[in-house]
Amino acid sequence: MKKRFLCLTLGLILSFSQVATVSASSRKEQLQQEKEAAQSQLAQQESKINSLEEQKTAITAEISQLDSNLVDVLVEIDILEGELATKETQIEQTKEDLAAAEVVRDEQYADMKKRIQYLYEKGGDNAWAQMLLQAEDLTSMLNQAEYVQQLYDSDRTSLENFKATVQQVSDLGDQLESEKSELVEMQNEYEAQQASLETQLTEKKATSSDYDNQIATAESQAAAYADLIRQQQAEIQQIEEEEKRAAEEAARKAAEEAARKAAEEQAAREAAAAESERQSAASSSNGSSTSNKTNSNSSSNGNVSSGSTSSGSTSTGSSNSGSTSSGSTSSSSNVTYNPTGQSVINYACQFVGNPYVWGGTSLTGGADCSGFIMSVYSKFGVSLPHSSSAMRGCGTGVSYSQAMPGDIICYSGHVALYMGGGQIVHASNAKDGIKISGNAAYRPILAVRRVL
Which of the listed residues 222, 237, 259 is the one where a domain comes to its end? Predict the structure, then answer.
């Protein structure tokens, strides 16, 4: 009865363990699917962030160019204002010169008119003739005639000169007014450009601010997905640890059950042997028959022992097989080798110590994390995107425990090349450049991609 109760209890325990294992396995599979979905969403957010950053960079460059153009326009407007001020001064001076010239002209004209009036008042139309006839001699007459001619020529020349001067001053005034009009027109044009540039700057800055808001929102969502992935990964690890403990417990109980069965069989053999001896001592006349019966029982017990041993061996083998399967995850990377992947690592390590340059792809002049891996793999004829988030979708996904040299280790916003033995080579940051790190799991690993 006790034996039957123990078997029933053990069966219930094993059945419960199987149900718990199935439930944990189902939850683990669900978590893996949810994690993959979260990683996909995280990759989309990071791709969106990269796109927004590129657009923001482009509009920042446009803003910088507009600022430069606006400065140029403001400088031109300032220069024009100075030229206009000078032109106004020149115009005012010309107006004053014109007024003065006109006054002198009018005065000269008035003097000439007075002389003519005087001559006519003295002699009328014959005034000039009288001046000549009143001369005492020919010489005096000629002198008088020459004087009259000089006076006439002087008046005429003065009038012509003042007329020309007045015309020149007037023309200069017209020219200055025309130049002023051109300057004013240019000033108006530059002021229109200034207004246009300021409007564009306002719009671009508003757009840039909107990109900042979008990037902040996307980064917040990405951080939420990354946190969710960490939680899911932690739960998956917990389930795996529970599965491992459950497997070890099942193996231990199986071993205990096998040992118990072996002990019971041993006790049964000993009891059979004691019964045989007792029967032999009680009935010496039947010793031969009893001896044969004892031999027969011994043979039968020997077969049972052999069967029990086989069963125990099978159980133990099964337990060992389960243990081996459980442990293979941690050692598989030590027994697998990819010669081409090792060639990739050997080539990549040549550039350790070279600089990190954001957005760069030069293995010698500077590269960022994805640019470094992209350029390394291009040496081997493999084309990869220049994006850490996009690389998470390249090649074939494997677990970190199965990682081989040359595989791409993907983190949030970063990628590295796995070297084996837990080491990675990667373009780290502006301070360290391209370097080798001894702990590939220094950050949560989102994916491991094999592209060879």
Answer: 259
